[in-house]
Each structure stands twice: as C-alpha cells, then as structure tokens.
Amino acid sequence: MDRLIIRGGIPLRGEVEAAGAKNAALPEMVASLLTGESIQLHRVPQLGDVKTTIGLLSHLGVSVERRDRETLFLRADRISRFEAPYQLVKTMRASVLVLGPLLARFGRARVSLPGGCAIGTRPINLHLAALEKMGATVSLDAGYVEAKAPRLRGARITFDGQTVTGTENLMMAATLADGVTVLENAACEPEVADLAALLIRMGARIEGVGTPTISIEGVDHLHGAEHEVIPDRVETGTFMVVAAITGGDVTINRCVPCHLEAITEKLQETGVIVEETDWSIRVCGDGRVQGINIRTHPYPGFATDMQAQFMALMAIAQGSSVITETVFENRFMHVNELLRMGADIKVIGTTAFVQGVPMLSGAPVMATDLRASASLVLAGLAAQGITTVSRVYHLDRGYESIEQKLLGLGANIERVTE
Ligand code: UD1
Questions:
Q1: Which overall architecture, per CATH, does domain 22-228 show?
Q2: Does residue 188 have an active-site annotation?
Q3: Which CATH class is domain 2-18+231-417?
Q4: Which pLDDT does position 115 carry in this prediction?
C-alpha cells in the first residue's frame, strides 16, 4: 500500500491542468452498454475508479481499448454477462450504474449491492423504486439486486430525494424505454448534464437537462458517438484550496469556472483572491484566511465533495467556522485525523464546529475515503513538519497523478510504495 510523505509549509505556485471529471467519465463509460456501436470518449482521467469501471465493463463483455492517454473506445456488441459481481463492485459505488442500461437493452441485470466510500449507508432504494415504476421486477437476493423487464415503459417519477447516480441510472434506462419518462426532483449536477449530452449524441431524446425536471422520450435503439468528458470540478476546487491553504498562487487551466461558483464565492469569503477567465481560475492567498460557515447542498449549492477540503482550510483560519453536512451522514471521518495534526474541531451530529489554530503540525494520518484523503493532503501541505498519509489508494480512486501535479507546483511530496 502506498503512502504519501509531505513536508509542509511551502507556498505552492504555478499552473496545473484539470483532468476530465471522474463523476462524468464513469456514467459515460457505462452508457456504452446502451448500444452495440462504438463509443469514443476523450479526456478520460487515469484513475482507480476508471480502472475499476473498465474491469466491470470488460467482465460484462464490453471491449475497451485505450488508444492514447486520454481516449477510450468502448464497444458493447458482445455482451455475455448481465451480472456485476461483488468482487468488482465492492470498491466502487458507481458500479450500480450498469443496472439501468443492462435492464433497458437486455431486459435483465444482476448487480451486487455497492460498497464505495464509507460515508454513510448510501442505499440505492431510489434507483430501485424508480425502475419498478418503469415496470421492472426487482428482487434482492444474497447481497444482489436482480431486475427484470421485457421492455421498460415510460413513467412519471418523482425522486424522494435528489440522487446523482439515481438520476443518471434512470435517464439511461429511459432512453430505450417504451414511451416518455419524466424525472422530477432530478439532480442538476454538470456531470448529469454531460452524460445527457453524450446520450443525445447517441440518438437519445432528452429535454430539461440541468433542471430538476428531465423528460426522456424512449427510442428503439441508440448508436455510436464521440464525446469529450467535462473537466473535474472537484479536482479543480481541491487545487483552489491548495493555493489558499499554502498561501500560494495557483492557476488551474482547462476548467469550467461556472461549475465552481459556490466554491469560488466561499473562497472569496475567506479573503483569498480568485480571478477567472472562461477556462481558468487563479487563486492567490497570503496564508491568512478568515473562518466562514458552510452548508453542503446538491448542485448548484456547495458540493459535499468539497466539504473535507474546506475543513482543512478552516482548521487554520482566523476565528471559528461552522460546517454542516446535509447530503451524507457520517462524512466527517477526516476530523479525527485533522485533530491528530493539531486542529480544533468538535462534531455534533452533522455539524462540525472548527476553531482555527495558527498552525497544524505534521503527523502520520490515515485516509478513510476519497475526499477525506484530499483534505489530509491539504492539511499536510500547510502543516509544519512531516505528514505521512497512508492508504493512498482512496486518493488514487479520484485524483489523477496528484503528487505529480503538486510537485509541479513546488510541493515537497513523495510517494512511497511498500
Ligand atoms: C454522487 C457522486 C459523489 C457525490 C454525490 C453527492 C458519482 C459517481 N458520485 O454519488 O461523488 O458525493 O453524488 O453529490 O457521481 N440516497 C438514498 N437513496 C438512494 C440514493 C441516494 O437515500 O437510492 C441518498 C444518499 O444516501 C445520500 C443522498 O441521497 O444521502 C445523495 O446521494 P447520491 O446523490 O445518490 O450520491 P451518489 O450518486 O452515490
């Protein structure tokens, strides 16, 4: 298992390029199951979760070829299995995304209940209830969800709560259903919209993308398409915090600033300078930030995937901050590790009260989930002394070449493989 060794206290400066978005690339790779023709995806990031998805799709019979660093060709013309086994899905919750496409095109799917980040119970009841509304028979057996439907039929579905992968699963399922499906209270995340853009290129009829009401008119079949994955807004946001927390000056290129408005506003509230062009964001700090209050929300609110990184920043802010997590229960596992580095944080229920300290000190810490790991790296970059972050595989699930990118900005960081 790899560890990252970080010698902190260096203001990071320079330019970095955003990778393609993990949370768009994964559903878009899975969308290849909806057609026997080739799907060509550009700007696919090199990540643990992408590798897991390639493994899962290959297991089902999809041929997956990486033509160059960023381009994948996927062709689902010889699907031989309809089951996503536990061994493959346990590390990645997004694997539940194969359910909708397999069911829509082949009439059956058997998918192990997913694992993934340990950030709450994270059920898939909303996905299943919606598929049942479209006529699927769903049963649970020995840790597996089994769904069957000769042909899904269009339905009006009002999600009980907003769910990103739930919206994606149902949107994919509805593209090949008989009739019109209307998804109410659908997720508005840019990654959902990007998946819809790919599906439309494949011949799907979708309206209302980016709004809470998405309408999909089913077609008989979809065809091949070529598509470029949008930039990763969480990776971009994380590098924005890198600049703020180290008192540095970092420009993130090839990003989409309008996807990060809530993050930008909050960073400005802390006192750092944020400058934007249409495709880049520059963040300059002088090492002093003000404590602010944060409440996570679905898009366009403040992303839960940025909460842990902001908590690291608030740990060294002047004054106090209140951070409330409303999307996931139990998403404060980074708190205990930050405490080991000298942070002053108290958690009551889903709210963290952070009293800023002048300085964090390096310590051995353990990554517990993807975004929690990022917050520990950020804390390590700001801390005096040496921080060792173990269980880096969590980080590798969602950040492409993170230590290479940080090295490029002047960080003292080293990966040690055991
Ligand atoms: C996606 C993102 C993840 C992000 C999250 C919230 C991907 C691959 N992952 O995860 O990075 O943190 O959105 O922005 O895109 N819920 C239910 N029942 C369900 C489905 C969800 O109760 O059937 C609950 C969840 O427990 C959670 C909330 O709804 O409390 C939101 O979850 P959801 O949007 O589904 O997250 P994911 O799609 O898994």
A1: Alpha-beta prism (3.65)
A2: no
A3: alpha beta
A4: 53
